[in-house]
Design a protein that fits this description.
InterPro entries: MATE_fam, Membrane_Transporter-Flippase. The chain is mainly alpha-helical and about 350 residues long. It contains eleven helices and no strands.
């Protein structure tokens, strides 16, 4: 258990190696987090049919909009905490962590409520076919109702990563995804719940991951330890989170907005087109996972070293991150280009 609470000082060691070791769990964690919906789609595609698969995928881009915005906003918290950790400002690390966690809880609740209320309107706006409209709405409602737990997990894992711990969030995601797979199979195959079943499985898994990361933060002996009684909005840190996080949040939703616009046009062509577009999106996400992982790791690396006033490591770290990111993206792109036709049948039976 002690290893779960261990931090990693990114201001020491060979730069490329430190970044790579820190990035790999984040990359794998990003993949595992995306597996919530990917596994949902695969299982309904195999056992509940193409319509159920299309129902989930027809709203996927829309579902990513609010989540991407708040995750981008929470990145501001990770950067702030990383800077304070690098500067050895223990009290600032603690207060910023408590502010960020309360923001996750309050912001997540508001996001869940608003998203559930507005989802029927937006599902209609993106022209989901009437044939799968009801299933798409039910799945969206269930997923949106659990956004507060997704926010708690993402902020909690961001706090841990700020102190250089990228492995604990990854371990939690592994457990949550195994649970999600088991529940998906039980609900879809045994209880024949189709889209409702995979939605409930995802919700339960997100609740478990949120509880686990919160417990880790409450039991750690590091400066980011969370005490329920100390959860409060410290104006100084909340302002900094918004100043740094808002530009990232806006940038984070540009791609989902573009995809949602395209998705609304694809939806007009029916179930077959939705399914085909979804398959390409699942494979394409591998590339974006690399980019996102290096973005998170490099920002944490830069923040820690900036806080420690080791500016020479900042420039070298950025260059190393760009080179490694491009290299991995090229390898994945070439692999997908060659074997994409062989990978597609794993996602859907038809």
């Amino acid at each position: 258990m002690k290893t779960m609470f261990k931090n990693n000082d990114l201001t020491q060691g060979k730069i490329w190696k430190v970044i790579l070791n820190f990035t790999l769990p984040i990359f794998l964690g990003t993949l595992f987090q995306s597996l919530y919906t990917t596994i949902d789609a695969i299982i309904v595609g195999k056992f509940a049919g193409k319509d159920a698969f299309a129902a989930i995928e027809s709203v996927m881009s829309f579902q990513r909009l609010p989540v991407s915005f708040f995750i981008g906003l929470s990145s501001g918290a990770t950067i702030i905490i990383s800077q304070y950790f690098g500067a050895k400002e223990k009290e600032d690390v603690s207060k910023a962590s408590h502010t960020a966690m309360l923001f996750a809880i309050v912001g997540g609740l508001i996001l869940s409520i608003l998203s559930c209320i507005l989802s029927p309107y937006f599902i209609g706006l993106i022209k989901v076919p009437q044939k799968i409209f009801h299933e798409a709405y039910i799945y969206t409602f269930i997923c949106f109702s659990g956004m507060v737990f997704s926010m708690i997990y993402n902020i909690g894992s961001g706090i841990l990563r700020a102190l250089g711990n990228s492995k604990t969030p990854f371990h939690i995601l592994i457990f949550a995804n195994i649970l999600n797979i088991v529940l998906d199979l039980i609900f879809v195959i045994n209880f024949n719940l189709s889209v409702v079943g995979v939605g409930l499985a995802t919700l339960i898994s997100q609740i478990v991951s949120a509880i686990l990361v919160f417990v880790v933060l409450m039991r750690t002996n590091l400066d980011c330890r969370i005490y329920i009684k100390k959860l409060t909005f410290y104006k100084k840190y909340l302002k900094k989170i918004f100043v740094l996080g808002l530009p990232i949040a806006i940038q984070s939703v540009i791609y989902p907005i573009a995809n949602t616009t395209i998705q609304s046009k694809i939806n007009m062509f029916g179930v077959n087109s939705i399914a085909a577009w979804a398959i390409s999106g699942k494979l394409d996400f591998l590339i974006w996972s690399v980019s996102d992982a290096f973005c998170i790791s490099s920002s944490t690396f830069v923040a820690q070293n900036y806080g420690a006033k080791k500016h020479h490591r900042v420039k070298k770290g950025i260059i190393s991150s760009v080179i490694m990111s491009i290299s991995m993206i090229l390898v994945i792109s070439i692999t997908l280009f060659i074997w994409s036709k062989d990978l597609a049948p794993f996602l859907i039976e038809d």
